[in-house]
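[job 0412] stage=complex_fold ligand=shikimate-3-phosphate status=START
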Amino acid sequence: MTHNAQPRPALARRSQELTGTARVPGDKSISHRSFMFGGLASGETRITGLLEGEDVMRTGEAMKAMGALIEKNGDTWIIQGVGNGCLLQPEAPLDFGNAGTGSRLTMGLVGVYDMETTFIGDASLSGRPMGRVLDPLRQMGVQVLKAAPGDRMPITLRGPRFAAPITYRVPMASAQVKSAVLLAGLNTPGITTVIEPVMTRDHTEKMLQGFGANLTVETGADGVRHIFIEGQGKLTGQTIAVPGDPSSAGFPLVAALIVPGSDIVIENVLMNPTRTGLLLTLQEMGGNIEILNARNAGGEDVADLRVRSSDLRGVTVPAERAPSMIDEYPVLAAAAAFAEGETLMQGLEELRVKESDRLAAVARGLEANGVDCTEGETTLSVRGRPRGKGIGGGTVATHLDHRIAMSFLILGLAAERPVTIDDSTMIATSFPEFMGLMKELGAEIE
Ligand code: S3P
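[job 0412] stage=complex_fold status=DONE, emitting C-alpha cells
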C-alpha cells in the first residue's frame, strides 16, 4: 500500500514556555537495521525501544515477506530470523512507502540473491535516485530487470548464482550506499571492501559486528575508512535496546531554545559521534544545552539533554560537518531564523535528494514566513530575526517530507504569527508521537 492518505494541514502558534521531560522514539537508522539483521540472523532477536514509525514497519513487512517471523509481545519485538543467505523470494513487490533507508539497504541485502525482487514506494520515494545503489550492485553481478528512467522505482532486481566481491569507493557521503554494499557483501563469497572517504553514521558496521559478522574497519591517517566484510558467515540473533533518535530529539530541542523561558529535559538520546553535529552547531550558536548522565548502553553512547531557551547567534556550519547532521538542516534553519545575524550552511548537496529537495523546500518555507534567506547550489544562508519579529503568517509546502513538516511547526512556536503546513500526515513515518509530545511540553499545535 503506498501513501495515499488525505493531506491533513496543521498549524503552530507562538507558545508560552515549554517545560517538562520527554522521551523521543527509538532511532530510525538503528530500528531499520534491527528488523533487517534480526530477520536475517539465525535464532531469536529481541528489540525494545524500536521506532514504530511507518518507515520502519515497512522494513518489518519486507523481512516477513522474505521469511522472517516478527511479532510483538508487550514492549518487545521478537524475531525469528531465517539465517544468513536463506531469505525467500517475496511473492509480491516490496512496498517501502516513503523510506529511502529501508529500500536502499534491502536492495543491497537481497539484490545479490538468485531471485527476483521488486521494489516500489510512494511518489517521494519513486522520485529519488537509486542508481547510487544499483551501480555497485551491477558490479557485483546483479541484473536490473526493470527500472523507471534514471534508475528510479519501480525496480526489479535479479542476483547471479554467485555474486562477485568488489572493492567500492563510495562516491558521495552516504551511509545508505555504504550499507547497501556491505549488506550485499554478506551473501557474497570472499571479502567485499567499501572505501569511505568521509565517515558517515556507522550503525551498520557496529551492529553487524554485534550479530557476529566478520567485519573489520581500518582508518587511514587521512581519515579514509576501509571496511572489509567476509561473506556467507553466520549471524546470530541479538538483544537490542534502541536509544532515542537524535534526529527526532532535534525538534523539541530547537523548540526549547527558541521559545522564551523554556526549560526541558530530553531523555535517552543517542550520542554516537556520527550523529551529534546539530548539538555541536547549536552549542556554537550559544544554545544552553547540558549533557546529563552520559552513559553507554548496548554499545552506543546515550545521554539526557537539558535545554533552556537561549539567545542564539548565527554561525558558519562547515561542509565537513554535514554527514553528522544531514537530516537536521531543516530544523537548524528554524533555529537560525531566530538567531542574531547570519547562519551559513555549507556542503548541502545531499539535501537535494532526500524525501524532498530539502534545500529548496526549506528556502521556500522560510520565504513564505518572512525569513530572509539565500539558497545556493549547495549552501543556505539564513538571516535571523531575534524574538521572531515579523516571522510567520505563511503556509509551507511539505512535499511528502516529514522533516519539513516538523521543522516548520517548530518555527511557528516562536514566530510572531502562526505557521501553517499543508500536510502533517507524513510525520508518522518517523515520529508518530510528535504532536502529542510537543503539546505535552506546552507547544500550541493544532
Ligand atoms: C540513513 C542515512 C542518511 C540519512 C537517512 C538515514 C541511514 O541517508 O539521511 O535518514 O540510516 O543510513 P544518506 O545515506 O542518503 O545520506
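Residues 2-26+243-445 form a domain with the UDP-n-acetylglucosamine1-carboxyvinyl-transferase; Chain fold (CATH 3.65.10.10).
[job 0412] exit 0
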